[in-house]
Amino acid sequence: MWCGVPMICYPFSFDQVTNRKLVVDDWKCGISLCDGTSVDRKEFAEKIKSFMSAAASESFRQEADKVKTTLHHALEADGSSERNFDQFIKDLKDKIHSTTTIVLNNS
Fold this sequence. Notes:
The chain is mainly α. The protein has helices spanning about 15-25, 40-50, 55-75, 80-105, and strands at about 5-10, 30. It folds into 2 domains: about 1-75, Glycogen Phosphorylase B (Rossmann fold), CATH 3.40.50; about 75-105. About 65% of the residues lie in helices and about 5% in strands. Helix 1 (about 15-25) links the parallel strand 1 and strand 2. The longest helix has 27 residues, at about 80-105.
């Protein structure tokens, strides 16, 4: 996704099913070759042909480019990744401080 390239998904274990859902259902920048079952040669060929068709291909490229742009913005200085990480550290420090205060008060 970092390079804005549409994806052909064939999940078969672990986080790949979740990744397929993001790519196909949420970001709409790829296709799924199967949903947990095997796919035959004819169905495979039809899905690839559909994926490569001009209209679908252009749509997938546009959506993949949107995801790419979002990812790149997230990693800029003061982007969402930095802000979220900073908030996580702040929340963690606050939690440690409140836990330490409770322990000290109960001692």
